[in-house]
Amino acid sequence: MNLQSKVSRYSQEFDPPVRGDPITADRYISKEWMAGEMKNLWPKVWHLGGVLADLEEPGDVIRHNFAKESVIMVRQEDDSIRAFYNSCPHRGNRLILADVTSVPRITCGYHNWTYDLDGTLIKVQDPDDFEGGSPCGKVHLSELRCETWGPFVFWCMDDDVAPLHEWLSPFPERLAGYGIDNWVRVLNLSADCEFNWKIIRDNFNESYHLPTIHPELATFINDGLPDTLFEMYPSGHNSMWMKGHQATTRVDYHTTEVPAPLDQVARAWGIDPADYAGHTGDLRAAVIEAKRRLGPERGFANYAQMSDQQLVDYFHCTLFPNLTLTMSPEQLQVLRTEPHPTDPEKCVFQHWCLYPPIAGMREVETPLGTVPLRHDAIARHSTYGDGVSVGFVADQDLSIGTSQQQGLNSRGFKGCILPGQEKRVQRFHELLNDVVQG
Ligand code: FES
Ligand SMILES: [Fe+2]
């Protein structure tokens, strides 16, 4: 099926065909679909478990609750990191009950079985009461794969999935120039939501909603087509390059004065916005030049490795199935939805923001305003709709989730009708069909 439209711009290299599978409501609603995902999808992908900043010393532990599962990542005495299912081999009790902690050994709160950091059982009550002798040294926590990339630690339940760096392809290479290894997670936000996890995945797989849901982005992000470039990779991941430091071409800002907030950005880089009145699109190139010239003396050592595009544009990397990394030179946003343990019409939304540690910089501009530049300066979990922000653009995306979920439940909804620019949505669901239904 050809969803290639005349207005959308797909890279020639990364534009696989789609079949046109129907996208009906059952995948957002039914327990059978949810069970299929639990069985065939979630074990087959790498999951972002946390940031290495929480695993500095031996005994540091991150717990990641995912649907009904819970995984712990533990820094070892030899500095490696291992991941275990958070379940006691004795009779199944969860071992670690905090999101982040530090322990000399892993001790179960039920009967006090105690495990070394490497998962080996080292102490039980009444060791002589077991047939065959003490289980110590013989029993181990159930282990799963654990690998790192940049500032992140990942886990995976399946031994046949490709190693993490290969699975992430092409992003380790594409994002190398940003130099994210030492970036600091300043915002760590999450919220319980009343919609299926795929509602927000679909949202991140298209930019069709920007004029309606995010109208204020139009003065500094060019969401016009065909200025935006879409790529869909063999790995199943995809990306969207959106020009930044340039107003949208959907509306005529290009022959006017430089609109706010671009005028302020121009001044911050020593550029007089008046010089760009009537040709505001040229400001982007001027900012590239200014960043190259002034960036190093302002502490942005990472600019030197970035391409011109990376210096000014937004690179939205959407990994199959549920992880988005939105890159700009000064901010990395992690946006993710994870399934609810039992209800297909609920999910957990997560939003982390990471920033490069620029010498002398104490604060950063975040989607929650100005925040101190330190690890987890704001960390909180909320319920969407209770008035607690998860970041202003993300709030806008989430605002549509509940009403879309409700509408999908209608007998009158017959399946999605997609324009060419939503081809990534189509491909996402076809990959999902292949994985979940076989
Ligand atoms: S369930 Fe953990 S010690 Fe009994
Ligand atoms: Fe959005």
Automatic annotation (TrEMBL):
Any GO molecular function: iron ion binding
Chain segments annotated as coiled-coil in the UniProt record: none
SUPFAM superfamilies attached to this UniProt entry: Bet v1-like, ISP domain
Keyword Zinc-finger: no
Residue intervals of the Rieske domain: 48-155
Record protein name field: (2Fe-2S)-binding protein
Names of required cofactors: Fe cation
Keyword Iron-sulfur assigned: yes
InterPro entries: Rieske_2Fe-2S, Rieske_2Fe-2S_sf, Ring_hydroxy_dOase_asu_C_dom, Rng_hydr_dOase-A
PANTHER family reported for this sequence: CHOLINE MONOOXYGENASE, CHLOROPLASTIC (PTHR43756:SF5)
Keywords, sorted A to Z: 2Fe-2S, Iron, Iron-sulfur, Metal-binding, Oxidoreductase
CDD domains: RHO_alpha_C_MupW-like, Rieske_RO_Alpha_N
